[in-house]
Structure to design on (229 residues):
């Protein structure tokens, strides 16, 4: 079975600062993907970034980067130059490779960006 | 490309009623997955449909069912509603082929059961 752990229920960061949201995972599958989603108060889950288990380099998408440490089974999200609009819930998720599309989610981290 | 759309966005029902939610995936995506999000249980996988067939199922009672049409649009049905079914229901679409595909979510349907 797969499991995602997000140990930070809430985080504060000042505008323009960088912030790291933690995510650790557990799986016995050799091939899998890790995802981060942002969920504003409106409810929609917005895809941010993806890391494949065999990817050699850490994924980056604009201000988002994923610090992937496979041996430690961690996939932390780094948001650089935080903006007020980054205030939201952030979910780490994973799924194994193959045709089954089931995503396993963590409990989420609520990020609040302050002036 | 248009994103994933879900209708209706908000719904109020009473216990014992049934409800049908609809999801239209991104054009070209053949896989549609449904998730339930509640404050207590978090995000839980309901089921996935691919090419009109249920390919994967979560641990939900038989009151929760779904189907997919030939144009990949999907519907989810909940019969005999219970108070605990109040939740945000999210639909996600992906290509559905092998590998690890990204799932893109719709805005969700907020269901309130009174």
């Amino acid at each position: 079975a797969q499991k995602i752990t997000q140990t930070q229920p809430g985080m504060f960061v000042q505008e323009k600062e960088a912030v790291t949201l933690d995510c650790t995972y557990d799986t016995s599958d050799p091939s899998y993907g890790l995802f981060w989603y942002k969920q504003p108060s409106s409810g929609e889950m917005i895809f941010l970034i993806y890391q494949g288990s065999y990817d050699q380099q850490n994924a980056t998408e604009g201000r988002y980067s994923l610090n992937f440490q496979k041996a430690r089974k961690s996939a932390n999200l780094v948001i650089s130059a935080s903006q007020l609009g980054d205030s939201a819930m952030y979910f780490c998720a994973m799924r194994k490779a193959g045709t089954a599309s089931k995503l396993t989610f963590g409990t989420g981290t609520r990020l609040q960006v302050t002036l | 490309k248009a994103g994933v759309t879900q209708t209706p966005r908000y719904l109020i029902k009473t216990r014992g009623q049934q409800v049908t939610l609809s999801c239209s995936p991104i054009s070209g995506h053949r896989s549609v997955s449904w998730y339930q999000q509640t404050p207590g249980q978090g995000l839980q996988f309901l089921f996935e449909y691919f090419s009109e067939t249920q390919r994967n199922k979560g641990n939900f009672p038989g009151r929760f069912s779904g189907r997919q049409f030939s144009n990949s649009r999907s519907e989810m049905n909940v019969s005999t509603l219970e108070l605990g079914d109040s939740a945000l229901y999210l639909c996600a679409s992906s290509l559905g082929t092998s590998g690890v595909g990204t799932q893109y979510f719709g805005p969700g349907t907020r269901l309130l059961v009174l």
